[in-house]
Amino acid sequence: MLAPMLCVYKAGIGSSLIKFTKKGGTVIATSDLFRKNEDNAYLDHPSPLHSLLPDGWESMTRGARMPLGEGSIIFLNPNATSEDWKEALEKTLQSDF
User: Fold this and answer.
1) CA nearest 4: which of 65, 91, 94, 88?
2) Per-residue pLDDT tens digits for 16-70
3) Smallest Cα–Cα separation from 29: which of 82, 61, 63, 76?
4) Which of 11, 23, 50, 59 would be a feasible disulfide site paired with 46, CB 3.0-4.6 Å?
5) Residues with Cβ < 8 Å from 49, sequence gap 6 or more?
């Protein structure tokens, strides 16, 4: 699944994304995924997705694959270029086949 822009946190979308990943799916998204609510204000607590990630995940190399269940999440910089997205997608496709 690709999430190429900031997505506002909604509990239903967040839990579906977690289920998808835990069952073996790969998510490529920007690191600001689910950081704001529908009022465009930053959440005052981590979203359930972020709370599942290992401590220090934000300092990991952007584009690093972080396991979550049977799947993984790849976070890119919010200012990632189209080449960054292309590279992440190519690496994902290569590793999944």
Assistant:
1) 88
2) 888 999 999 988 888 777 777 777 777 787 777 777 776 766 666 566 778 889 9
3) 76
4) 50
5) 14, 17, 18, 33, 34, 73
